[in-house]
Amino acid sequence: MTMLMRAPTTDTETRYPYLVSSVPAARAVNAVKLYGNAETSVRALDGVNVDFAPGCFTAIMGPSGSGKSTLLHCLAGLDTLTSGSVAIGETILGTLRERQLTRLRRDRVGFIFQAFNLLPTLTAAENITLPLALAGRKPDPDWYDTVVDVVGLRDRLGHRPAELSGGQQQRVAAARALVSRPEIIFADEPTGNLDSRAGGELLAFMRRAVDAFGQTIVMVTHDPVAAAHADRIVFLADGQVVDEMFDPTAERAIDHMKQLGG
Amino acid sequence: MRRLLRGALAQGARLFGTALAVALAVTLVSGTFILTDTVNAAFHQASADNGGTADVVVRSTSLFATQANSLPEREPVPESLLSRVTSIAGVKAAWTAVQGYAELVDKQGKPIDAKGLPTVGSAVTPDVALAAGRAPTGPGEVAIDAETARKNGLQLGDRIKVLFSGSTQEFTIGGFLQAAGDVVASTKAIFDQVTAQRVLGVEGKVDAIPVQAEPGVSAETLRARINAVLPDQYEAVTTAQVARESAESWTKAVAFLPTALLIFAAVALLVGAFIICNTFSILVAQRARELALLRSLGASPGQLTASVLCEAVAVGLVGSLVGVAAGFGAARGLLALFGRMGFQLPSATAVFLPRTAVIGVAAGVVVTVLAALAPARRATQVSPVGAMSGADGARTHGAGGRLVVGAGAGIAGLATLLTGVLGGGARPTIAVGIGAVGMLVGIALLAPLVAGRAARIVGAPLVRLFGEPAFLGRENAMRSPRRTASTAAALMIGIGLVGVVAILAASVKASASRTVDDSLRADFVLTPTGLGGAVSGVPPAVVDRLRATPAVATVSEIRGGQWGLDGRTQTLLAVDPTTVTAMHEVDAASGAAVRRLDDAGVLVRDTVAERYGWRVGDKVPMTFARTGTRNMVLQGTFSTNAVRTDFVITLGAYKANYAQIFALSVDVALAPGVTPAAGRAEIERALADYPVVKVMDHAQVIAAQGDQVDRLLVPVTALLALSVVIALLGIANTLALSIHERTRELGLLRAIGMARRQLRSMVRSEAAIIACLGASLGIVVAVFFGWALVASMRALGVTELVFPIAQLAGLAGLATVAGMLAGVLPARKAAGLAVLDAISSDR
């Protein structure tokens, strides 16, 4: 490993000076996550420090077992740290109780999972508005129309997930994540189950959400082609942030991964 | 095979609800047998004890065996017969037995509650067993049973009032009898021979002569020897024979009980079957992938079916064994409850025959296996490829057969039911019952067709009330209409039957009330207090006193009795033709028939006469226990429901053929100008010595009839409630299984921001929707079956059809709330899932 360990914030300062004064959309400080008991414990996260700037599309890459999914789950309030802290905006998640965490996920965070993103009993439209409905809110009609048009689902709104293709299902999930205007969207291998064309469409849509609407997205992926759609790649290995890359291309990402032994 | 079973056993916990449903139904089955066996054993024991130390009894012959609960309809035996019996070789001792009605009065002046059992007064016998004090001597002394004394705080030396058929007298308690008040007699009082004959009104006569054999002479030998010298109208029988007769008559009197209880057990098993079928369907569907893997590895369809059926046998066996044990506990609890209520059985131990366990377990296992048969067959229809790829391959298979069977059962049921309603067939009510069962099965099988739409409608108010979680719960209820339908159908059966009972009760009460309003013209009706019965009726002295009361214009007595027609027991009423029509206004034809009736005749209900092909003027061969077969002339027919039996004779004819002297009821018309209040006061004053008689006006008669209906129908409802409980268990079970199936979905919901509270609300909403669906269907079928049942019972006097709307609505509401409560545990389980585990679960 020849890379120097650097605090990522420093780089952000230099690359995006206009963001320096603002609070990061999400941040992990000395994040440690242990699994199992004392003897057989696995350090999934081993002191991760990382910030995610608002309006930025960040990919997290790393070999299997590097802790990238764990980091995403902890950042999203789905899992808790053993030590250290994570924050969404100015809210430190470790201090929140179960109910507050749930509300945070509902109101301030969007999710796109690899599969099983949708409720089979609901139509596409109902799935899209589900987090708002759970909050007892109505979607902003203009924004809803915009999102539906951007993902190109206008004519599939009345269909149930079983009647949609895999790509369409993931776009519904993306629309759902977007419609409540969350501060940050977490995507866990969103293209993992898609063919390259469908995957490309989804990534293009995510890119547009960042460029046109200033949406913050953090995406875990092991696919360098997918990661190349991001503004920045954070590389994880053995539970630590080992490097980052701005304005990546697929080739550079592949090279980096090779160096990491992925 | 073992490997297949291991997969099944892994589901053990998920089969808990099913086993519990089996256990509850089997509890009812085994409890019924244990209770019946115990009661029968108690009757045999009590009957045997009643024989005392005698070996043979000499008594008058009887041509017709009366049912229990009434004193034997036999002529007395002349006292002079005793010396002839004593002189027979082999007789060690012989004495006389006198028995009659003697009701004890407690310290507060109220008759000691007899619980509808005989209150026996008798003459002292040489073999009397005393617990304390001495045998009664002289006209002022009595010995009573120790149990009654204990319960009423009576001491030796206390004065006690005793009511006889002709008089009321006071005695000093000189002794306590060892024999407790038991199932044969509620209370016992013993007097010396002369006193007993005097107070019981049989001077110079005795009921029977018990005989003891000398050592070495068998009861049978002695019986034959005595019979050889007895005149024809007397017979000698062994006490064993008497005990057998007595026990048999008791057993016959309660024979309806096990039948009725087993019907409820069958209902519970039917409801249980729905749950079992549902559970296995869900488990097979959930295991589709596993089963497909086994198929592709070479397991034969037969092996897969066998593995599911083995599982069913295991569940049935465990549930049944628990049920049998619980039945034993339940029976003991009930016996203890009986004891608390005063029906103390002489032997307190519950009788547990091997047959009980065999039938209980067999019923549980057979029902479980039958219910699991269809799901087991479906397990084999899983196509290896389809299931492996994760599609719900086996979901819609067999729907066609189901529809055909459902429609067939429904239509056949409806046809049978309608023949009952239209009065066809000998037993319209039974036709309605059988038809109803057919229709229930049909509706249950067809219910999936409408379950989705129905859930949408039923859930609408919930969605409006609880918002998105309820909406999601409703979508869940609608996604698998078959599962929702069969879960709801189980509740439908329970609620439907409870509803039918409620409708029947309301209709019977309204009909009785209508009959009283329409036809009762007497100002007061006098009946015995307590449950009443053939023994403790209105004493004849009461009738005499009423006649001597100036405020009373007319007194009309009605008596009741049993008789035999071609060996079958019938009942009759005896009336005074000159006064009864003034007390009960009936239709003109019936009234005229009664007025024409004389002592040689009998009136028969028109439908019954038609059934037997009797015409007016024909002879009806009526066999009376005392006097043998008499050919009574059919002098007319009646149709009125005011008469509660099919045969009516005159009091004159009754007195000629029955020894029984008590009236079932006495109707009283006040003299002109006497106000009801003044009349009642005067009557009660005249009858101050007869606390066993109560005076009822019209409202009280209606209330008493209502009480009678409730006494019968409340336990019935309680037993049906067990089926409802099983159905609710089914809701909890189905939801628990569904939640297991939807783990991943629940994880997603939690991840995207559904609060635990909302998740619980969602599951409870689904439960409430299923319950509401079942309850609504139940109420619909209850209304229809209630109408059919009441229509079929028109001939039995149920002329009014009443739907107790508030009660039915309350029932549906209660069931819905209970269903929601049934969802509480599964809801808590769902809310307790760890979000991350749930998302990454492979379900």
Description:
The complex is a heterodimer of chains A (262) and B (843). By secondary structure, chain A is of the alpha/beta class. Chain A contains ten helices and ten strands. In chain A, helix 6 (141-151) packs antiparallel against helix 7 and helix 7 runs parallel beside helix 8. Chain A is globular, with a radius of gyration of 18 Å. Chain A starts with 7 loop residues before the first helix and ends with a helix. With 843 residues, chain B is of the alpha+beta class. Chain B folds into four domains: 1-52 and 238-396, no CATH class; 53-237, no CATH class; 450-519 and 699-843, no CATH class; 524-696, no CATH class. In chain B, 57% of the residues lie in helices and 15% in strands. Chain B contains 28 helices and 22 strands. Chain B has a nine-stranded mixed beta sheet. In chain B, strands 4-5-10-7-9-8 form a six-stranded mixed β-barrel. In chain B, strands 3-12-1-13 form a four-stranded antiparallel beta sheet. In chain B, helix 2 runs antiparallel to helix 8 (256-286). The two termini of chain B are 26 Å apart. The interface between A and B is medium-sized, with 28 and 24 residues.
List SSEs of chain A in N-to-C order: HEEEHEEHEHHHHEHEHEEH
Report how far apart the termini of chain A are: 13 Å
The CATH superfamily of the domain at 54-69 and 95-259 in chain A appears as P-loop containing nucleotide triphosphate hydrolases
The chain-level mean pLDDT of chain A equals: 86
Class by alpha and beta content of chain B: alpha+beta
Greatest interface and its participating residue counts? A-B, 28 and 24 residues
Nearest-integer average pLDDT of chain B: 83
